[in-house]
């Protein structure tokens, strides 16, 4: 998909939260979202993601890394679902073994993609979670 | 000069220093962020220098905490994968395998090679970005053949 063909989802006013402890990944994931016109925030671990929601912030989409200090993605996803957060949560992580992936999905993910995240993978997430209809 | 820049970039792919992920990042560059890849690369080298330092210190202590070393290398591999640093990523994978096998000598040997690849990539990318800035903006990012 060329730069000119990328959808601009700014009109849909979608919001997203990037949850990742790695600064390089934070930067890339935020850029991917911005290129599609999706406003986004970033936090460094699962606890900060939970705290953000406790303070009243809400997002349409959460991109959740798995391995993070303090509170990992599996724990954070479980906690957010227990809190009643209905945002779509996509797990984004480097290759996890099947058991880890299953545990992560069962924590309450709506989708899962392996890193590195690309525009195609992000569009796949958005399409699967009904944020974007491919024409 | 654009041609020179393109040739240098092609060689980085041909020699296996970079993989397709680097191209994905270049395609994210736009007028708002024309130097996005250079900025992310700078972030990567700053972060990875910290990780190298942590691993160096851990190895110098002599007692091999393979779990801790593996955790550091997991982060390093993650960053390297995200920017397309192919050779560095390969060494990270090898290191982690040696950690899982509890092979201290393998870890030391691989880490030495990893630092070499990391340093080489850094120099080559610095040179590439310097030339790219001098050459000015190009129309579109092109995938290498």
UniProtKB/TrEMBL annotation, chain A:
The keyword Ribonucleoprotein does not apply. The keyword Cytoplasm does not apply. PROSITE patterns: RESPONSE_REGULATORY. CDD domains: REC_hyHK_CKI1_RcsC-like (cd17546). This is Two-component response regulator ARR22-like. It comes from Camelina sativa (False flax). Gene3D superfamilies: 3.40.50.2300. The modification 4-aspartylphosphate is found at residue 65. Keywords: Phosphoprotein. PANTHER family: TWO-COMPONENT RESPONSE REGULATOR, TWO-COMPONENT RESPONSE REGULATOR 24. Residues 15-130 form the Response regulatory domain.
From TrEMBL, chain B:
It is found in: Cytoplasm, Cytosol; Nucleus. It comes from the Eukaryota. The modification Phosphohistidine is found at residue 74. The keyword Repeat does not apply. Keywords: Cytokinin signaling pathway, Phosphoprotein, Two-component regulatory system. Its main location: cytoplasm. InterPro entries: AHP1-5/YPD1, HPT_dom_sf, Sig_transdc_His_kin_Hpt_dom. Residues 33-135 form the HPt domain. Histidine-containing phosphotransfer domain (HPt) contains an active histidine that mediates the phosphotransfer. PANTHER family: HISTIDINE-CONTAINING PHOSPHOTRANSFER PROTEIN 4 (PTHR28242:SF43), PHOSPHORELAY INTERMEDIATE PROTEIN YPD1 (PTHR28242). Functions as a two-component phosphorelay mediators between cytokinin sensor histidine kinases and response regulators (B-type ARRs). Plays an important role in propagating cytokinin signal transduction. This is Histidine-containing phosphotransfer protein. The gene is LOC104745968.
